[in-house]
Amino acid sequence: MSLTHAPAGAVRQGSLRELNLALVLGRIAAAHRPPSRADLATATGLTRATVSAVVEDLLAGHLVSESDPAPRSGAGRPARGLVLADQGPAGLGLEVNVDYLAVCVVDLAGQVRHRTVHRADLRPVAPADALAQLVEMAVAARDDATERGLTLVGAALAVPGLVDDAGMVRLAPNLGWRDVPVPALLAEHPPLVEQVPGVPVLIVDNEANLAALGELHSRPPGPSSFLHISGEVGIGAGIVLDGALFRGVRGWSGEIGHLPVHPEGRPCRCGGQGCLEQYAGQEAIVTAAGLARAELPADTATARLAELAEAGNADALRALHDAGTALGVAVAGVVNLLDLDTVVLGGGYAALAPWLCPPVLAEIASRVLTAAWSPVTVRPSTLGAEAAAVGAAGSVVRRIVAQPAGWLARSG
């Protein structure tokens, strides 16, 4: 009896190889110490011969490298461990924010290999011009990455606004952007990355979402559910539930900066009143502290506030306390709604956490139903102000880890 096609449910040889590559590389990426080939065979259930063949492919494709064996006692030659390679594919992270542009390159192991920040007020700058400046920075980053033996295989752009599935920035009120076709504008410039099957050339997402993903995948790993708040001129939040980013029906969740903390309060750029940003955004805190925002360089605003607070300046301490109180009101509502036990303060908030955390925790204690017997942790971000750009680049390299066959096909 002859068969003209494979039976239903059969796995093609090529597909099986792709699955094995992803399985082994994923185990190496998740390991707390460099696993040996024998360790991988035990962890995956694959034969040692299969693991060895897969590892050789990964080594040849510069996806993994061998590390020195760990000291061991007893007879036998110690096995060499395997780690993600520090050369080969890398991700490009881009960020446009109200008062800065940022670019970073992250290698497969999640290490930041290049980072540049350009400080400027971008509100009077046209979107096309801001993106053109960002491309110039990205080209320099690409050239530097190439010298380090890295190949940029995809880019992700973080923006402080609402982004639809096509990468259109529907609204970024603090930038004054509305219906900006970011992919089309970037396509007018020479390609920044090399095309690899399975990896999008460009991802555009909300900066708070990408910052939350950066925090989720940072080392050492933290909780699998948390609220990450990015405090800049605007305030955004990324919500992580059970290890996955919660996006909402249209992908626009996390707009905590526009939760009203004083319903009849100050007007906001979004058109509402009393939004959190008007009381706890960076410019609001600087103004409340009695600092002249126009005379204070953007890159020193947070540092200056921290310096004054450390010195006991009454105006700075009062401004930070009031901002923390407003932030705590908004956070308490989110915690009550989603039953989260960890709040991460990122962006400019990370450096100000010593003064923001106490009033935030006080509001949580008085407003969260379960706080008396189930405390909520409020802490600074592991990545701080770099979280969005690093999270953006990391979202690219994680796709390589999940689908290494595309890179191997391109490099083979």
From TrEMBL:
InterPro entries assigned: ATPase_NBD, ROK, WH-like_DNA-bd_sf, WH_DNA-bd_sf
SUPFAM superfamilies, A to Z: Actin-like ATPase domain, Winged helix' DNA-binding domain
Cited CDD domains: ASKHA_ATPase_ROK_BsXylR-like
Pfam families referenced in this protein's UniProt entry, alphabetically: ROK (PF00480)
Family affiliation: Belongs to the ROK (NagC/XylR) family.
Name of the protein described by the UniProt record: ROK family transcriptional regulator
The organism of origin for this protein: Micromonospora zamorensis
